[in-house]
Structures are given as structure tokens and as C-alpha cells.
Amino acid sequence: MCFKSYAQEANSFVFKGNLQSSTDDMLYLIRFRDGKQIVTDSTMVQNGNFRLEGTCESPEYVLFRLGKGISRHYFLEPGEFILVEPKSNLAKGQIAGSRSNDLYQLLTAEQDKNRRADEIETKIFNEAYARDPKASQPVLDELKRFRNKQTNEFKKLLFQHADNAAAQFIYATHYGEEGDLKEIESFISAAKGANSIYLQTLQDRVGFYQGIAVGSEAPDFVLPDINGTPQQLSKYRGQYVLLDFWASWCTPCRKENPNVVKAYERFKDKGFTVIAVSLDDKLPAWKKAIELDGLPWHHWGDLIGWQSPVVKQYNVRGVPFSLLLDPNGIILAKDLKGENLHIKLEQELIKAK
After folding, report:
1. Which regions span the lipid bilayer (predicted)?
2. Which of 7, 48, 161, 240 is paired with 198 by a 20 to 30 Å CA distance?
3. 3-state class of 163 per DSSP?
4. pTM here?
């Protein structure tokens, strides 16, 4: 994080230079927090000359903006940074001095190279598909292998530089999803105790994912049911619960509903129930879908769609999404669909006898 201060010399930075084509204007330092741009410091550019001073606790991806126009992203860190091409503007001039920014430029150049190569491979597949869709499968398979290889090689490069904030920023931005928990932990280990807000983001992500992982206790919550009465998940301990996130507008959800109905009818007298959490924001549409699909179980929702705290609490990225909970509220499995739901319920109910 970067702030205006002169007390902590070890963490101080200076950004200076000369913008020969610039009129007198304000140069702003902007950082990113919770999806917002926050101005943390500024200085006046006078006769093209500027000097911006402050502190930086750890390397950070920031934005320099001149007035209301020209801007430049940069990896700021303690030290002195000089705009070394005075005839260029802020956006195009080279800024020397930041190890993190040098690596960021290298990594983004690699990303651009991969992107261009992917466009060529994708074009080859599209042309093959246009000629003969049925015969294009081998080309598609090759495209998938190519993309996997690209991803793995780029991740390897990030791991090699895991102790640098630039690599941490890119990894946290583009990778590190829920299914990659072990990989995230390996990346953090590879960082060897380095400190940055991006590494902290990954560490927080590990804690969050572990809280909703298979084998963990499902986080408790309260939601109103379809009649507006508050309901609490933990009140359903003692039963196997399918916590099913869905919406009336979700076609795959509606297609899966008949399968869930079959499972419900088959196992409802053996300690199984369904709690459907709706992502709808319109009550009539929600009620109509329940009636049309014949869904005889519990229906909860706060009618604010993706903004629901429960959606965020369970890291719901798409619907349908479900979790099977045992009578102690432990997550047994995720996203069981089709026959897999029936097989898992059979296995668990046999063990419970």
C-alpha cells in the first residue's frame, strides 16, 4: 500500500522526470481497492518537471494519471523511479527503477505472445469446423492441448518468480480458483515468505475455499423462504440436505430439476431433503417455475440475485450449483448431477444404516 509520508525512509519512493510536451497539470497517484480507484497522492507538474514522493509498504500495481487524460499503470515499490524518455508522454515514456515492473512487463509480453498464438490456433480450428464440423474434432483436441501447454508453461514462469509481487498479482488475477486449492498453497509456499497485498489475497482465498471444501462444515446462514419467513440452514441437521442453487431463468437448472425430483421422491422418507436457494429477483417468475417444474421441497431466497450474501458466502460462480450435506452439516460432495446424485445418496444411506 502506498501513502504520502516521510517517516519511513526504508519504504520511501520518489517518482520524477520531465514531460517536455506537458502543460502545467496535476499528476495523481491512484491505487486500487475493492474495485475502486482511490487517489492517494498528487503533485503539480511545473514547466514539465515533476517529483512525487511517498511511502510504499510493499510493491503495488498503481496508476499514474496526468490531469484528466494521460495515464500509466506501473508497479510501484520503494526506490527512485525516473521517466527516462523526456520527449515521450507519461503513457509511452520508459520508467526505470522498479524490479517488479520490469518483471510485469516481461510477463505481460509473454501473455500477449500467447494470446496471438492462440488466435492463430483458434482460426485454424474455425476454418476446419467451417469445412466439415464432424471432421474438426482432432483439430479441437489439438487446440485444447495447445492451450493447456500454454497455461502450464506460463504458470511455471509465474512459480519461478513467485516471490515477486508482479507474478503474485497476475496469478491472483488470472488463476487460483476454488478447484486449485493445492496449487494456490504451492504458489504461496514458492513465494518464500514474501509480502504483498496480492499474496495476502491468495492466503485469504485459501482460508475461504477451505471453509467450503468437501469435508468442511457448511457455513450456516439465514434466508427467507418463499413466504418471507426466515429459515436457518443449521436447523436441518439430522437430515441429508441437497443445498441447490438455481434460478427460474436458468435453462440447465430447469433441465436438471426432473432428476432432483426423482431423487427427492426416492429418498425423502429416508432422511433426505432439498433446500433450493433461488437467485431470482422477481417473485412471480420464481413461483411460476416452482409450480411448472413441480418442486415439492424447501424454497429460500432474498430476491437480490447475484448480490445475495449467501451466493458470495458459498462462492457460487454459476448455476446450477449444489452441495450435498450429511446430517452433521458436513459437505459430502459438490455439483452432483444426473445419476451421480442417486449413486451418492445410495452410498451414504447404506452407510448410515
Report:
1. none
2. 7
3. coil
4. 0.73
